[in-house]
Amino acid sequence: MLTKSLHRGVLLTLTLLVFLLLAACGPKSSGSIVEGKVNVITTFYPIYEFASEIGGEDVHAINLLPVGVEPHDWTPRSQDIINTSKAQLFLYNGAGLEGWVPNFLKSLDADSEAKAVEVSKGVDYIMTDEEDGHDHGGEGEEGEAEGHTDTLHTDPHTWVSPKSALIMAENIKESLQSVDPAHKDGYEERYNKLAERLKALDSKFATELAKLPNHEIVVSHQAFAYLARDYGLTQHAIMGLSADAEPRSQDLLKLADLVKKEGIRYIFFEELVSDKLAKTLAAEAGVSTMVLNPVEGLTEAQEKNGDNYFTLMEKNLQNLILALQ
Ligand SMILES: [Zn+2]
Fold it and tell me: Where are stretches of biased composition, namely Basic and acidic residues (predicted)?
């Protein structure tokens, strides 16, 4: 009897120890549920920023994607399932960005009341036949597709255009109002402020880019189709929708020819993935590289610096102006 209870005691201590160790050693927690607020789980940075802005004091937002990580290779951890099960709202981009969402929603607690909302709904989607070799979407059915596929994919990068970001912000506002009607007016008021800023950004992009003589951009990852469509640019991508799929060498040579022929002066790359291919192409064509940020997440430096969707998009505009004049 004595040994049995002693045994149980040791087991309990061990369990507790393992639990504490796990809690201490796990990757940086993405935050925990706060009682008395509307808990909103977001999948990646722009949605987190908009939900925090519109939510104000009524909302506690938790972003699943850690700082410095781009959404392509990310999948949720068990703590994310626990948090989301207790939250009132789960906001994801959709349009194929988060291929893990259907399974994730199935794994939530049976009594979870979290309402899942596809934030990009209502945006006029761009379809592309680009291969999508990474986990940006495709619900995993394409996997590591070899060669060309004839399937059309939805381009998920809706937020990169202020015009579609505005639609996304409105969806976020409506979802907050539906789970928390008591604070409807506050959401409306803060949404209006955010919408004003997005509209100002939109008209700045439209007027500034229209003044420029050049409209062809060469980018590393095909993340700028919505921006290109809405502001009259033509996007040439080295890597397709993915940020990590390798381009074929004949495609690189073709791009180098285009760069020379069109007098393109800069190849754009992004900070969360390697700039190797952009540098290779730039060297091949004898031009320079510059950052064009798809705002899929912040780097640690950007977070410390207080950067956000608006500062990064503003920087994008300044770099586009430099590159296209
Ligand atoms: Zn992307």
Answer: 133-156
From the CA of 217, how far away is ligand 1's center (Å)?
16
Q: How far is the CA of 160 from the centre of ligand 1 (A)?
A: 10
CATH C-level class of 127-154+212-324: alpha beta
Residue 68 has a pLDDT of 85
In the reported structure, the alpha carbon of residue 182 is separated from the centroid of ligand 1 by a whole-number distance in angstroms of 36
Per-residue model confidence (pLDDT) at position 25: 38
pLDDT in tens, 210-268: 999 999 999 988 899 999 999 999 999 987 665 566 777 888 888 999 999 999 999 99
Domain span(s) for CATH 3.40.50.1980 in the chain: 2-120+156-196, 127-154+212-324
Beta bridge pairs of residue 89: 40, 115
Cα 130 to ligand 1 centroid, rounded to whole Å: 13
Global confidence as pTM: 0.85
Residues of the chain predicted below pLDDT 70:
1-30, 130-150, 240-245
Q: Which residue has the tokens 């994008």?
A: 316
CA of 158 to the centre of ligand 1 (A): 10
Q: What is 2-120+156-196's CATH topology? A: Rossmann fold (3.40.50)
Residues 6+ away with beta carbon under 8 Å from 254: none
Q: In 3-state terms, what secondary structure has residue 21? A: helix
Q: How far is the CA of 315 from the centre of ligand 1 (A)?
A: 18
pLDDT of residue 276: 87
Q: Tell me, in angstroms, the distance from the centre of ligand 1 to residue 200's CA.
A: 25
**What is the number of helices (H) and of strands (E) in the chain?**
11, 10
C-alpha 165 – ligand 1 centre gap (Å): 15
